[in-house]
Amino acid sequence: MKMLRLLVLSAVALAAAGCVSTSDFEAAQRQIAELQEELANVKRTAAGKQDVQNVNTRIAEQTETLLKSNATLVAKVAEIDDRIATTQGGVEQANYRMDRLAQQVSEVQRGFTSLEARVNALATAPAPTSVVPAPADPAGTPAGGQMTVPAPANENPNDTYQAAYRDYQRGNFDLAIEGFRDFLRAAPNSDLADNAAYWMGESLFSQKKYREAIAQFDSVVTRFPRSDKVPGALLKKGYAYISVGERAQGIVQLQYVVHEHPKSQEASLARQRLKQLGIDTN
């Protein structure tokens, strides 16, 4: 600004004094115009820098606000997850207790039925005599020919299977194994027998009892060779062998799944695992 003013005053003074030519005066005017343009550019540049600084400041403030909001949201989500997990655990425990209570009620009802039958039998039986009763024979029938009261009927095997499967889904693997084993004892020829044997193996695998799981999956393949659970049993045998360090045996099992059941979902999973192990399945 000072330089501009000096140039203007000098130009005016020279013009007034008549000491300069027209061309000199025009040159001075051009210099003044250039200085004015440069001054305007400087002002515009300074204003632009200030605007950028203001925008950066606002962005920083908004970013900090968003980060604080995100932290608050994450904390709330974590709190909700904890509540859901606690609630789910309580529901599972309640369902388990209800199942056990239902079984106990059923057992009590069967006990009352048996007791009622025995009371009715005693009420209708002839009056006792002083004759000493004959000892029972090895089959459990008295020598006189009178039959003993039959034992209460067992629980429906399908109910046992469903209860065991619910235990498996809830992660109660020990109860699930016990339930599936009871089902197989009660209904070894059931259509669900292969499923029960397979889920026993899955329960053992989930407990990382890999040796026992291998034996159980092998029983599925041996006892139920036409079952749709065979591919899954072979696949999990392969996983179990790899988990105990017998990599070669595990690879053999996975390759068997791919070759014998190529269109199954288990074959796709076997290919993925073999690829992870660096084995070509083509």
Give descriptors for this structure.
282 residues; mainly alpha
What does this entry look like structurally?
With 282 residues, the chain is mainly alpha-helical. The protein contains nine helices and no strands. α6 runs antiparallel to α7 (230-243) and α7 packs antiparallel against α8 (247-260). The chain is elongated and about 125 Å long. The two termini are 83 Å apart. 17% of the residues are buried. Residues 11-20 and 123-153 have low confidence and may be disordered.
Condensed summary:
The protein has 282 residues and is mainly α. The chain is built from 9 helices and no strands.
Distance from N terminus to C terminus (CA atoms, Å) equals 83 Å
Average pLDDT across residues?
Answer: 74
Q: How many strand segments?
A: 0
Rg from C-alpha positions? 46 Å
Q: Which sheet architecture does the biggest sheet show?
A: none
List the SSEs and their pairings.
Layout: H1 2-17, H2 22-124, H3 157-169, H4 173-186, H5 193-206, H6 210-223, H7 230-243, H8 247-260, H9 265-276
